[in-house]
Specification:
about 120 residues; mainly beta; seven-stranded mixed beta sheet
Length: about 120
Amino acid sequence: QVQLVESGGGSVQPGGSLRLSCAASGISSIFRIFVMGWYRQAPGKQRELVATITSGGTTNYADSVKGRFTISRDNAKNMVSLQMNSLNHEDTAVYYCNAKHIVTLTAYWGQGTQVTVSS
């Protein structure tokens, strides 16, 4: 049973920082064959890609977060993190951890963690 558990969400003022973490279980022995990513969904909007990272460390970012967010992963600990800096109101959303198998493209999702940027 694959399980992704996010942590680190919360409320922050504009310009602030937060770090999200996602712990993966049930795929420990094959974590490296999953592309890990973060997605977000704001109220009334579709879920959108924030960032992804391969086991080799290749990253991809949405244009809206480039230069502000950094995704990283620890293959030994089966974890992926998202460092978010210079947060603004448009970053307010529920953030979801995602794991996608590189061959079958089967995707798994976490339960989501709320990030609120408010003054």
